[in-house]
Design goal:
Radius of gyration: 26 Å
CATH class of the largest domain: Alpha Beta
Number of domains: 2
Number of helices: 18
CATH superfamily of the largest domain: Ribokinase
Number of strands: 18
Helix content: 25-40%
CATH architecture of the largest domain: 3-Layer(aba) Sandwich
Largest sheet: 9 strands, mixed
């Protein structure tokens, strides 16, 4: 790297100290922030215009791991992006941000002027809403938010055109989709879900990842020995479903059971979003479900799994009666029920019967896993308004391995008196259906995978309230596949899918 360029690239702490000194000398500090993935003429004009507002121009970059703009992004890593910008004469210092947004960085650097491009001048057009937070941060340190008025280009549009990150089938699909919807249309559909009152009901699962490295086979026993390194614990099952939907709906209640044989109450309470109301019932006869996976951290390969659960015992009569009494009294207070049934004993036949009889709208996801294969079928419910299951789960429910998927979907829809569905098909995308629109095949948007755990549940949780709001099912499928593409890049349920990153992803899809 050229010495002049390398001398411009600093850590944030270093830049803050330099700026303190320059500020004391009467210099005016200008700060620009962004991804700047594909440096283009619009960026250069923006930086030149920003520099004219003061004496010292500092540019900070979003870290690679905080960029949520679709598959293959960023095209260039943070080091290369920093070097490219540092090569511009008008830029005095470059630093890589430490946080997901610029808010803390603004407070640290204390610029006189925080400068954005003209595409942010109408704050309402910022789908993430972060411009409001940045403006507040600038005002808090006595600075001003200003905008340049130069020609703009979109890095995302250029990347989609010249470095297409999507599979060919997805590119063809997205070109057709753009003729019917804009990104703002789809984001608008998502925002409609904000006022939906949701009751999430289903099994709590504690997901544990125990990371270990192989040591080899012992000299005397035919056993592979691994060395424990560290562990992570995630809120899974209905906990994850509630956290996902609570980012998009303000009023969410979670109803579930907690086993008292192992006490995870503190963990559960501390890993739910603050806008989730809790309606928990305790069972002393079973443990809270824990799924402990032993994982190679280098490639995130799961070696084996131990499940701590007991779904063989019938639920105590008082447990069923207390939950059914709550449902009888309160189901009318909710717009929809999101049933996340993992088959671990929370949803008993009587509870299911009450939900089916009295729920105004049922969004249903019944999952097949190693502990319930062949037993936990979507057909255990007598009705649903929206179902979201994968192809294998549908075929098991139909006892049919090979027939046409659309035919089987119609069969299940008729049996459940259901009008809308998304059938997920893994790397082949998903199939959406409604009685009014028929079938639509939505391709996957990315082949990049870190971890599949929780992807189906996230897709279901976030599409359910928009389906309730009667969005077109092709839009629901696009939202679902975008959620899935984002979720498989996350280890387990480490973080929830949140509105701002999803909005950015959708904008990137339709640029």
């Amino acid at each position: 790297m050229d010495r002049d360029i390398s001398s411009k690239i600093k850590r944030l702490d270093e830049v803050a100290k330099i700026l303190d000194k320059l500020r004391g000398e009467g210099k005016k500090i200008v700060h620009c922030h962004g991804v700047f993935d594909l440096l283009h003429p619009g960026h250069i004009k923006h930086f030149n215009s920003a520099k004219q507002k003061g004496d010292i121009l500092v540019v900070t970059l979003t870290r690679d791991e905080h960029i949520n703009r679709g598959p293959g992004r960023p095209i260039f890593n943070q080091e290369l992006r920093a070097e490219s910008i540092a090569g511009l004469e008008c830029v005095d210092y470059v630093a890589i941000n430490e946080w997901p947004t610029a808010v803390e960085t603004i407070k640290k650097l204390k610029p006189h002027f925080y400068v954005k491009g003209s595409d942010y001048a109408v704050k309402e057009d910022d789908v993430t809403g972060k411009i409001y937070e940045e403006d507040e941060a600038v005002r808090a340190i006595g600075g001003m938010l200003q905008f340049t008025d130069e020609i703009t280009f979109s890095s995302t549009s250029l990347i989609n055109r010249f470095f297409p990150p999507y599979p060919r089938g997805a590119r063809v699909f997205l070109e057709e989709l753009k003729k019917r919807y804009t990104a703002n249309d789809i984001i608008g559909y998502l925002k409609k879900a904000e006022g939906v009152k949701v009751l999430v009901i289903g099994d709590i699962i504690i997901d544990e990842y125990h990371y270990c490295s192989g040591m080899g086979k012992g000299a005397k026993d035919n056993i592979i020995t691994t060395r424990f390194m560290y562990e992570e614990r995630f809120a899974g099952g209905a906990l994850a479903a509630a956290n996902h939907i609570a980012g998009f709906c303000k009023d969410v209640t979670l109803l579930s059971s907690i086993g008292t044989q192992n006490d995870y109450t503190d963990f559960i309470m501390s890993h739910l979003k603050p806008n989730i109301k809790k309606q928990f019932y305790y069972r002393s006869d079973v443990p809270t479900v824990v799924k402990r996976r032993f994982v190679d951290p280098d490639f995130l390969i799961k070696l084996f799994e131990i499940c701590y659960l007991d779904n063989t015992k019938p639920a105590p009569a008082f447990y069923e009666s207390e939950i059914c009494e709550y449902l009888d009294t309160h189901l009318q207070d909710f717009d929809m029920v999101l049933a996340a049934d993992f088959g671990h004993g929370c949803l008993t036949p009587k509870i299911i019967e009450t939900v089916c009889k009295k729920s105004p709208f049922i969004a249903l996801n019944v999952q097949t896993n190693s502990s319930n294969i062949g037993y936990n079928l979507v057909t255990k419910f007598s009705r649903a308004d929206y179902i979201c299951i994968d192809e294998q789960e549908l075929r098991i429910a139909c006892h049919d391995k090979s027939s046409n998927l659309e035919h089987l979907t119609l069969k299940i829809m008729q049996e459940l008196k259901c009008r809308k569905a998304i059938i997920t098909k893994g790397h082949r995308g998903c199939l959406t259906y409604s009685k009014e629109e028929g079938f639509t095949h939505i391709p996957i948007f990315s082949k990049e995978i870190v971890d599949r755990i929780g992807a189906g549940g996230a897709l279901f949780s976030i599409t359910a309230p928009v389906v309730f709001k009667n969005v077109p099912m092709d839009v629901a499928g696009v939202i679902g596949n975008a959620v899935g593409a984002m979720k498989v890049l996350t280890v387990g349920n480490r973080i929830s899918v949140e509105p701002p990153p999803l909005f950015k992803y959708i904008v990137a899809l339709l640029k």
